[in-house]
User: Which sequence fits this backbone?
């Protein structure tokens, strides 16, 4: 994901901002990958510790989320970035908010899109691309089906068919013995 995102970023700009989870930002993975491809580029990173919890709590359109996003983007806007890389697969869920806060000239890079494109190209090259209609997706969960369904509608744009499994102490105990 990181290399695909870095490749896409260097094709789109020279002043690149990266928003990332704390661990990804601390690792400098995107910054290092971008500078390895094009050492003369300028790269700034911002750690965004509140984004994932806000997204997972379905607070995407909450005014607080917009304020948090504004505070994370402000130092990047001050640097006059021309490209912003999503350093977490959750962040595309915030794209409408991020787009509204950024100058229109800033390119948004979702590394996952570029990974998917590379996978399709590789499968075609190897003659392995599946041209059959997709199989139905089956969701098996152990949590709350209503919450999962609502998240799926919000994130995937579809209402899933959900199967709930209940773990008993016997099953969990048996599983633990198999693992140990």
Assistant:
């Amino acid at each position: 994901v990181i290399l695909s995102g870095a490749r896409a970023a260097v094709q789109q700009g020279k002043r690149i901002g990266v928003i990332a989870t704390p661990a990804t930002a601390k690792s400098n993975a995107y910054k290092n990958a971008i500078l390895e491809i094009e050492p003369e580029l300028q790269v700034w990173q911002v750690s965004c510790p509140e984004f994932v919890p806000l997204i997972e709590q379905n607070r995407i359109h909450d005014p607080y989320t917009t304020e948090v996003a504004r505070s994370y983007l402000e130092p990047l806007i001050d640097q006059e970035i021309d490209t912003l890389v999503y350093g977490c697969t959750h962040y595309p869920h915030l794209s409408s908010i991020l787009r509204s806060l950024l100058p229109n000239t800033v390119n948004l890079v979702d590394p996952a899109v570029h990974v998917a494109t590379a996978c399709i190209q590789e499968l075609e090259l190897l003659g392995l691309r599946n041209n059959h209609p997709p199989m139905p997706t089956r969701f098996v969960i152990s949590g709350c089906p209503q919450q999962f369904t609502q998240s799926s509608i919000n994130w995937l744009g579809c209402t899933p068919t959900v199967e709930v499994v209940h773990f008993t102490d016997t099953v969990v105990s048996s599983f633990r013995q198999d693992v140990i």
